[in-house]
Design goal:
This protein is α+β, with helices and mostly antiparallel strands. Helices cover 33% and strands 17% of the residues. Strand 6 and strand 7 form a beta hairpin. It is elongated.
């Protein structure tokens, strides 16, 4: 299996998660403890190991070999466009949240924390 690497490196944990071999980042410790993972032919137990272009990760028990390759120009362009769109949407949401006005407080209504506003103290018989 080939994995196209768009950045300088990817960690072993992230690679196994993105390829669907493990379901979550928390599962990596148990996976590495119970399975053999070979990094360029040598046993690897560090989940944060940085993998770069040309590296090979082998999972002998599953019969899987992952080779990190460089994407072509078209794929690289599409990745850059996707990142730009993601940033644009994040900035838009941030701006919308900033522009939101806080609701005004009215007597006998709950505040944002869910508490009733304080009423003046009344003394009996007055």
């Amino acid at each position: 299996m080939d994995y196209k690497l768009f950045d300088d490196y990817i960690t072993l944990q992230a690679l196994l998660k993105e390829t669907g071999i493990i379901q979550s980042g928390g599962a990596i410790k148990g996976y590495l403890a119970n399975n053999t993972v070979l990094f360029n032919g040598e046993d690897e137990k560090r989940r944060g190991k940085k993998l770069r272009l040309g590296d090979k990760v082998e999972l002998p028990k599953e019969g899987i070999t992952i080779t990190l390759i460089q994407p072509n120009e078209k794929e690289l362009e599409q990745h850059q466009l996707d990142l730009a769109e993601k940033k644009r949407v994040a900035d838009l949401v941030k701006k919308m949240n900033k522009d939101k006005q806080k609701p005004t407080r009215q007597d006998n209504t709950k505040t944002q924390t869910g508490k009733q506003p304080k009423k003046p103290v009344r003394f009996p018989g007055m």
